[in-house]
From TrEMBL:
Record keywords: Membrane, Transmembrane, Transmembrane helix
Residues that span the membrane, as ranges: 16-34
Domain of life per record: Eukaryota
Name listed for the protein in its UniProt record: Uncharacterized protein
Length: 35
């Protein structure tokens, strides 16, 4: 189960990183519209 668990862990980390990036971009767009 090493390969399967590792793959799941990597996908979860990727989703977390994507969520952080999307939040950062959302804040950038919000600040741009505020200005």
């Amino acid at each position: 189960c090493t390969g399967h668990c590792h793959g799941t862990y990597s996908t979860t980390r990727r989703l977390a990183v994507m969520r952080i990036v999307l939040r950062f971009l959302w804040f950038g767009v919000a600040s741009a519209f505020a200005c």
